[in-house]
Amino acid sequence: MNPAAVATTNPAGTAGTAGPPVTGVAVTGHVTFLGAGPGDPGLLTLRAVEALARADVLVGEGAVLDVVRAHARADVGMAQPTTDSELLDSAAALSTAAAQLVMASARTGKRVVRAVAGDPGFDAGAAAEMLACAHAGIPFEVVPGVAAALGVPAYAGVPLSGNVRFLDPATASDQCWNEVGTGDSTVVVSTTLQTVAAVAAELIAAGRKPDTQLTVTVAGTTTRQRTWTATLSTIAAELKATKALPTPEGPIAAIAVVGERTADRRHLSWFETKPLFGWRVLVPRTKEQAESLSDQLRSYGAVPHEVPTIAVEPPRTPQQMERAVKGLVTGRYEWIAFTSVNAVKAVREKFEEYGLDARAFAGIKVASVGEQTARALVEFGVKPDLVPSGEQSAAGLLEDWPPYDAVFDPIDRVFLPRADIATETLVAGLVELGWEVDDVTAYRTVRASPPPADTREAIKGGGFDAVLFTSSSTVRNLVGIAGKPHNVTVIACIGPATAKTAEEHGLRVDVMAPEPSVAALAQALADFGTARRASAEEAGDPVTRPSERRPGARRRTRV
Fold this sequence. Notes:
Blueprint: E1 30-35, H1 46-54, E2 57-59, H2 62-68, E3 77-79, H3 91-106, E4 111-116, H4 124-136, E5 140-143, H5 148-156, E6 164-167, H6 174-182, E7 186-192, H7 196-206, E8 213-218, E9 226-231, H8 235-241, E10 253-258, H9 265-268, E11 280-283, H10 291-299, E12 303-306, E13 310-313, H11 319-329, E14 335-338, H12 341-353, E15 365-368, H13 371-380, H14 394-400, E16 413-419, H15 425-432, E17 436-447, H16 453-461, E18 466-469, H17 472-482, E19 490-493, H18 496-504, E20 511-512, H19 518-539
Parallel strand pairs: 1-4, 1-5, 2-3, 2-4, 6-7, 11-12, 11-18, 14-15, 14-16, 16-17, 18-19, 19-20
Antiparallel strand pairs: 7-10, 8-9, 8-10, 13-17
């Protein structure tokens, strides 16, 4: 961090170019120049996350703000440099606009995070903004990030070791071109997709052999990443043949790596070869319900999209729930069994209404079905006494539930808060084991509102690569609120009953989980993606996502 300094004032009351520091006025604001990395939010450092959590204002371009905003407070202010085309004729003008935003907020005493792509030390604009803050007497610090020139090759499977040179064609001198042309170093070039061919030609002219290998990567470290492998003399034809070059819509940033190390990519490409890389997967559940499932899908390279198909509402007659909660406090029950996160939420809300907390569960045994339900209980301060050792379902819970014993169980009653449409499996099983059950409607489930129009269009038009159905109700409700998924979309179901419902709605089931759990369902879809990739590679076909297939193509068989 730079030494403590004093603030400047702007007589006109507007942001502008900073003048000399004005002494005698304490500076209370602060600026953090933060590297957001090449695009993957998971590459943010712990220090970056800490700085974002304390920020009052975020300043950055749109794509960078998308990477960092999840770690900021809900009430954080956000600002982007002006989009006035007259002011953006140069990188210097953009940097000036950003510096004005940063300093204007800092002068009011706010903690400002200026987020930039990659690493601030690799960004000439960020360096100019730091100088502006220094001249204005505004204290600042730098939080480094993963530079694109380092992170993108790592995600492309191209190791950078040994003799490495970094080249920016826009600022490279003739001497620099001659050195990288006549040398044998690995060259990392920060360029654009539109100018890659020109850079390759320049390297050949400078002395590099035309058959020198290179890789070109765009959208590096994101699930849109794509890498081409060619030689300096063939890269132009390769990009043209794959129709990679877009119509003129502005430059597309690219990282090219030139040299022998690029040959290792065929063995080290770990990111783009993930089983569901780039797949848009529809998860018909709320964000809270889908958290662990979505995380698992991301680990396979997928892009999950949660769409709630049900909404939860209070019971029409709350008296039954109120009596049960009061009975829980007065010792009416030996057990309480939670079969869903919504049941935990309903009981917790009733507790809060009565001024109760987790201590009210003292002396009561707690049963739980499902990992997310157990997690919700732990967050409430309750550790479940019983969870299924096998299948995470009502049937699995009954397998482990002890029969009522008049000697060891002082009370024979179980409190079962659940949805209005829940099945009777658990109640019947508990009664058979000798227990009395208070089967209480804790909440009602109703069909959710339709998703946004673009999501509905993607569902019906083949914009999603797969959809995961975790129950028959998710099938019925999704079709009801959004329409039937397109026939190119891979349909994955959690079990036979859900698959039957999908087929009744005219859907061809491609994947079925080997056991009824969301984790097994996600794994089954990943196995499907792996088999699909292997089949394409064996046939010599390009590896594409299901949504990239031609309309009307033949559906695959179930795995």
